[in-house]
Amino acid sequence: MDIRERIESFDKANGSCVVDGGFLLFESGGRRDINPLGAMRDPPENPYECSLLQLRFCEIRLSLAVEEFQVLQRQLILFARNSMKQKICGSSPDPEALELLKKIKKKVKFWQVKVNAAQANVEVSKPVHLRQREKQDEDNRRNCEDFLGELQKIEI
Q: pLDDT tens, 61-119?
């Protein structure tokens, strides 16, 4: 199997991808170097590590969708404002542009739901020792806040 076939096979097996640093991060949690001769990494076998990568994928997709929405919305606002400032008002905005903006908004909502689901999956797959450490951190933080509150009550 040549390099192109290996890449096509890997890409097909791992779903859609986003650019994350110097890597392509796949929906499955798999990663491959942008350089075709670079590393290809299957999704981690550890469910927690895999869920973290899947969350990262969803967060990047959400970020791209939000950026796409904001850019188009800004363009449409600028177009409308500039048209209204002209002595002779320019053409009216294209109604299809509003439909496109609404479509992108649906994409944003879709990825928000996916991010929430991926975050829940991270929590479910989190190892016991990490849960215990988080609980201990939370207890320590609460104790420090209580201690600080008591310290601030003591005056000369």
A: 999 999 999 999 999 998 888 877 777 766 776 889 999 999 999 999 999 999 999 99
What residue ranges do the domains of the chain occupy? 1-43, 44-125
Which residues lie closer than 8 Å to 17 by C-beta, 6 or more apart?
11, 24, 25, 26, 27, 57
Query: Taking the C-alpha atoms of 142, 147, 148 and 150 in order, what is their torsion angle to the nearest 10 degrees?
Result: 130
pLDDT tens figures, 44-65: 999 999 999 999 999 999 999 9
* pTM (two decimals): 0.82
Q: Which residues are within 8 A (CB) of 3 and not within 5 positions of it... i.e. 6 or more apart?
A: 36, 37
Cα 94 to Cα 76, 79, 81: the distances in Å are 9, 10, 14
Looking at residue 70, its amino acid is Q
Contact 112, 125 (CB under 8 A): no
